[in-house]
Amino acid sequence: MGVDQAYQDEGVPGVDALQVGKRYGEERAKRLRDDGNDQFIDISLSDKFQSFLEDPWVDRAAVKDARSMFPSNRCQMLILGAGWGGLLYAVRMIEAGIRPEDIRIIDTAGGFGGTWYWNRYPGISCDIESYCYLPLLEETGYVPRHRYSHGEEIRHYANLAAQKWGMADSAVFQTKAQKLVWDEEAKEWRVELVQQRKGEQPQTLNIRAPFVATVNGALNWPKLPGIPGILDYQGDIFHSSRWNYALTGGSPADPSLTKLQGKRVAIIGTGATAVQIVPHLAHWAKHLYVVQRTPSAVGHRDQRETDSKWFRKDMATSAGWQRERMRNFHQHFTTEKQPAVNMVDDEWTSAVSMVAISGNAAGPKTMDELPAYIQKLHAIDLPRQERIRRRVEQEVKDPLVAKKLQAWYPTWCKRPAFHDEYLSTFNRENVTLIDTDGRGPDQLTANSIVVGDQSYPVDVIICATGFRAPFTGSPAAKANATIIGRNGVLMSEEWARSGPLTQHGVLDHNFPNLFLSGPWQASLSPNNLFNVDTLAKLSAYILAEAKRKAGGSPFAVAPTSAAAENWGMQVMMNSIPMAAIARCTPGYFNVEGGIDRAPPEVQMIMARSGLWGHGIEDFVRIVEAWREEGRMQGIEVRT
User: Fold this and answer.
1) What CATH number labels 63-220+469-575+610-638?
2) Which among 179, 300, 405, 583 is least surrounded, fewest beta carbons within 10 Å?
3) Which of 120, 121, 118, 122 lies closest to 84, judged by CA?
């Protein structure tokens, strides 16, 4: 159904929109907690839970000694993060003239891939169409195997890109940046690195790099539920991002979980990760318990193999085809008229109300216009969510179970999920849905999960409980690092006190030569790699122009304070279309309900620090027009 039709409809036949809104509020109230985001255990920040972070994939022989990778304790550019974001920054910097051998990419992982390195659970695939999601398809000539690429393919493709651009020998794995300090006189960063190779003592290395890029990913630090007794449990337990195939059987290439036969398994969480895992667990486990707080809204995926002849003849037909496809994809996230042709034509392009989190140039311009805008979003969204709730009733045979699996919140409150087997899995006799009515489990004992007055003995617990919220903190927090800029400014304190001071989200006035990768003061697409690549191209342009202006001298490049203040004000003034997220069911989009409960002065900082409210294509238009001017307006190069 097109947006115009959905908005013109008085409603959905047989559905009382007011009652739906009331139900949304009731379900939201169940999830609100005083501890908010603190209800979770951030594994990387807790000594007691470090075992959950152990790398099951690392090839010790393939991890080079950090000292050998910095023979003079220097590199020209240091990139924090070896996922697809880090690779894109490397590629764009190479295109701008930096030699691959002058770049070093560090990561705590043992290889390239980022989220696709860590997450190798059974059933993993990307929920964005591969012809949009996989970057650099024109440059590599690669043809994705499926409409939605599986995790292993994405990881292998990352290695292919690293080879093609000469980056395979530039990575320093199992290494993190502990501390970065700006040296104003030398115009470079002093960086303390710590490498922790498996089976060895950690070693610290101090290096220098004129340029640093922080590309640590959106979802990189796993979290556990703060359930009382979690360390008392004596069975096997792990996080889904560190899948233990030695325990379950199978491998990333073969999800035959034969070692789960005869075992009682529980998976905690029903988000986008669990939706992909649950059908595989149900197939192999003696019994599967699915522990749910809030159900996912699960649409059709419609997976299929790629016809290579179709790919080359009908889609990849001319230069710029992938960018045009992404533009068409983005054009569906607006409350205005949809494009005449839907190139992607999947469930994402029916999720028009996601403009509430991605931004909308057709959104409200003043707070007075906000209530009518939110009402319009609900009118657009209701037919879709009702269709998805009806799908549950059609596929799940037990009406009581079906009722508990229905999602009562607007589409924009949580990342939509897509799967063709998840719902029907609950028709199996060996699958039990444990619905906690928004609370979560009450306790873990030595051998059981306790919910209310019911105890469920289990042999294995899998925590599909997600990651640290991507929109909180600062780049320093994302990297679990200390970053100290000009005049001793500590990034974590400065951003908490007044927010970032960037122009276009890519460079902060207080932290020269430190290239950022969003999302703060930048924009958002459901395809996060598009966001990152937009900033990577902008960063490479700025660096190339700054080098030209500096004429061979060491330099510091950053926005002027006036330009950064102006951009921050523009971000805040255009943030109104994003306000609908505040009243959502708690989740990582709204920091577990923390946004609307923050004091007014904190909300002002959030608005100034947040996303460009007019959407990703408008943001791209602005930064591309700025580049076309060729004057580096607002950017200062100090030699």
Assistant:
1) 3.50.50.60
2) 300
3) 118
